[in-house]
Amino acid sequence: MGFLSERSRYVKNDIEVLDAVTEQLRKKGKSIVSLNRGDPARYFPTPKYIIDAYVKALMERKTYYSRAQGSVELQTAVSDRYKRMHGLDIDPARIIATAGITEGLSFVNSALINPGENAIIFKPYFTIYTTALELNQGKPIIQRYDENDAWNIHLEELKSSLIRSKGRDRLKHVKYMMVTNPNNPTGTVLRRNVLKELVDLANEYGIFLISDEIYDEIVFNGARFTSVSELARGIPHALLNGVSKSYDSTGFRIGFIVIPEEDRRSDLLRDKMLEYARARISLNTPAEYAVTAALNNPKGHAKALRHRVHEISDRVNFSVKMFGENQFLSTVRPNGAFYVFPKIDLKLLKFKTDVQFVTSLLMEEGVQVVWGSAFGEPSHFRIVSLAPKEILEHAINKINDFCRKNARR
Ligand SMILES: Cc1ncc(COP(=O)(O)O)c(C=O)c1O
Question: Greatest CA span in the chain, whole angstroms?
Answer without folding.
Answer: 67
